Amino acid sequence: MLGDCTICLDSLSDNVASLQCGHIYHFDCAKSWILQSGTCPVCRKKQRRRDLIKLVIDDEGTDWPQKLQEAKVDLKQVKSQLRKTKKELSTANENLSEVEKRCELLEESNKTLAKKLKDAKFRLRQVASDSDSVLETVLPQIQVDSLFHSCRSPKNSRKRKTVATSPESQSPRPKRRHFEN
């Protein structure tokens, strides 16, 4: 709402005009006043009829109080949503921080386990190598000792004679090796 015309004191709702000084009146009121006095009724500045500017009033502007109230409600809702979103963001950041810490711990644990695995594989290769060396050294000695022992034992010599004379001994039999600990 624009207020009241200071010439006729009616509400300024339609057929409105402005003078060069910026004061607003009804068009007909301002035209009559300028023809009579040649000045603005408020500031008394000199005015001419051709200086009168007709204004078009937008009726949509009359519901500003309602629009302002709606805007306040919208603003309140937006602020509420913003607080909620900030809270969710804060929670998400806390969760992210916890996950990052857990990830760092798991990476450290993974590095430690990888090193232990590497060390265990190295030790296993060493044990296998040592075992092969021991077998290469000891096995021939055990075989020699076993053969020597079987040759010297009187029980085994009798069995060999018995086995050789039996008819079943015609087919070759696998030799048994005796290993002593």
Supply the key terms.
181 residues; mainly alpha; Herpes Virus-1; 2 domains; three-stranded antiparallel beta sheet; rod-shaped
Descriptive account of the structure:
The protein folds into 2 domains: 1-57, Herpes Virus-1 (2-Layer Sandwich); 72-157. With 181 residues, the protein is mainly α. It has a 3-stranded antiparallel sheet with strand order 2-1-3. Mean pLDDT is 81; it is low at 160-169. It has helices at 27-37, 64-152, 154-165, and strands at 16-18, 24-26, 53-55. It has 3 helices and 3 strands, in the order ββαβαα. Helices cover 62% and strands 5% of the residues.
Please outline what is shown here.
Helices cover 62% and strands 5% of the residues.
Question: How large is the radius of gyration?
Answer: 57 Å
Distance between the termini: 116 Å
Main β-sheet description: 3 strands, antiparallel
Note the run of SSEs as H and E: EEHEHH
Instruction: Determine the structural class based on helices, strands and strand pairing.
Output: mainly alpha
- Overall number of domains: 2
Average the pLDDT over all residues and give the rounded result.
81
Protein name: RING-type domain-containing protein
